[in-house]
Design brief:
The chain is α+β, with helices and mostly antiparallel strands. The protein has helices spanning 2-11, 68-71; strands at 22-25, 31-37, 42-48.
Length: 72
């Protein structure tokens, strides 16, 4: 998980401990990871699709803002 934490801090210039949820999609589009700080420590959720790909909005400077509907 350290890799995603560094991407949030260095790549996005954001605080991974601020309570926001950060999503990462694998290159093939079949894997997503979500990390967030729950007040105690960093939590990680990962989901891989057997078939198909996660639909991902266009990125602007490597950042995508998701609505709650898109994140669920």
């Amino acid at each position: 998980m350290r890799s995603q934490e560094l991407q949030v801090q260095e790549g996005l210039g954001r605080d991974p401990f601020g309570g926001d949820v950060f999503f990462f999609r694998g290159r093939s589009g079949s894997l997503i990871k979500a990390i967030w700080h729950d007040g105690i420590g960093l939590s990680l959720y990962a989901k891989r699709l057997d078939r198909g790909r996660f639909i991902w909005p266009q990125t602007v400077d490597g950042v995508v803002s998701l609505t709650m509907g898109q994140a669920s």
